[in-house]
Amino acid sequence: MTMQSVAEALDRLRALAAAEPLATLATRFEAAGHELALVGGPVRDAFLGRPVNDLDLTTSARPDDIIRIVAPVASAHWDIGRAFGTIGARIGADTVEITTYRSDAYDPDSRKPEVAFGDTLDGDLERRDFTVNAMALRLPSLTLVDPSGGFDDLLGARLRTPISPARSFSDDPLRMLRAARFAAQLGLDVDDATLRAIEGMRDRIGIISAERVRDELVKLLSTSSPRRGLELLVVTGLAELVLPELPALRLEVDEHAHHKDVYEHSLTVLEQVIELEAARGSGPDAPADVVLRLASLLHDIGKPATKKVEPGGAVTFHHHDVVGAKLARKRLTALRFDKDTIVAVCRLIELHLRFFGYSDAPWTDSGVRRYVRDAGDQLERLHILTRADVTTRNRRKAARLRGAYDELEERIAALAEQEELAAIRPDLDGEQVMAILGVRPGPVVGEAYRFLLEMRLDEGPLGAEEAERRLLAWWQERDGAS
């Protein structure tokens, strides 16, 4: 950050403070005899030149006083966070959260603090997670308050805690995961004392609920460049406790790219997935596709369990796609991911190798239809994951694989236009099957439906008349066999 950019950041903060709703709030709190300050993320992001999306404020006023001050100018207000001193309000087009100064005390066996209101802004800032999040701008005086040196840490691209890291992480072990997220999100280097504290205190993450761990991992994966944070989790040993499948990959050799181990390969695939997300139409400002990013990070976690050294020294990982999907299901379930996410991630892992057979020998139309059928609503994600899974440095091989996948996508598009490929169904539905065969609902209808579906996949649309003829022939043969 240059001095010019610092001046520009201060100008942004002044402009933000002079605009609504901060201008009105500053005037009202000052008139009521209370301090008010913009705090944390908005101040940090202004210095970094990032968009300021959240308006978080802190005040000397207690919750009841906050409501009295904001109610006359708010179209709505809510006190769902009152127990923690937080009042939310809708003022014009903006949503603000205003929290009373805090000076919490923590039970060593819990990350939930005993909430205590504080009396000073400096005391409130000291309890925050990292110095870069512990800066405030007093309103309306526009005085920067930075008791722990967060501004200097931004200049030096450092991440550290306002108090000793051991005390900070003891108070709230989730901050160790947040360190990984902010390192990735803001491009900061975690200072040595903080790293040592994470390494020494990592077992305390065990008191954090699976849901909170999951949420931090999702936030980390949703950053534009999560590698730095994931590497931090691995190097400190935290990953062994929250996502042990990731560090386990460091011991394996990737048969597709001998210059990298599977750990490095997986991080590279994740990076390439993020690039392809934007390149294929979602755009740089679109929400992160967490399902796709999870699948890319975990796609090879079945390799440690399937590693085999063949005669002659070749290393194989047969069926690591199937094993990996099972391991992913177990891990994502333990982290309390929702069912839809788990199903989608596991399906992508199961299918991530399917294309490499096509690159050796192009499929028939039947094979292409089955690829689309098996991918279902995950087809676009599978396109991205498969392309990202090519990390070879051999340019000729990479170009061959890229060309083969281009061809496959072109064939999918052509068949889709001809056959409504996205919704492959037999030429006859269940009601028609029962009417033609003269049967009631039961297992035989399912058998007939599967026969018709396989025929549809093999040969494409046949039309109702031909499908009926084939169905009756199948039925006659079936009855004869039984």
Automatic annotation (TrEMBL):
Class of the enzyme per the UniProt entry, highest EC level: transferase
Keyword list, A-Z: ATP-binding, Coiled coil, Magnesium, Metal-binding, Nucleotide-binding, Nucleotidyltransferase, RNA repair, RNA-binding, Transferase, tRNA processing
Record has Transmembrane helix as a keyword: no
Gene Ontology molecular function, alphabetical: ATP binding; metal ion binding; poly(A) RNA polymerase activity; RNA binding
Record flagged with keyword Ribosomal protein: no
Annotated GO biological process: RNA repair; tRNA processing
Coiled-coil residues: 398-425
HD/PDEase domain sequence ranges: 258-403
EC number: 2.7.7.19
Cofactor(s) this protein requires: Mg(2+)
InterPro entries recorded: HD/PDEase_dom (IPR003607), HD_domain (IPR006674), HDIG_dom (IPR006675), NT_sf (IPR043519), PolA_pol_head_dom (IPR002646), PolyA_RNA-bd (IPR032828), tRNA_adenylyltransferase (IPR014065), tRNA_CCA-adding_enzyme (IPR050124)
Alphabetized NCBIfam families for the sequence: HDIG, tRNA_CCA_actino
Protein name: Poly(A) polymerase
Organism of derivation: Microcella alkalica
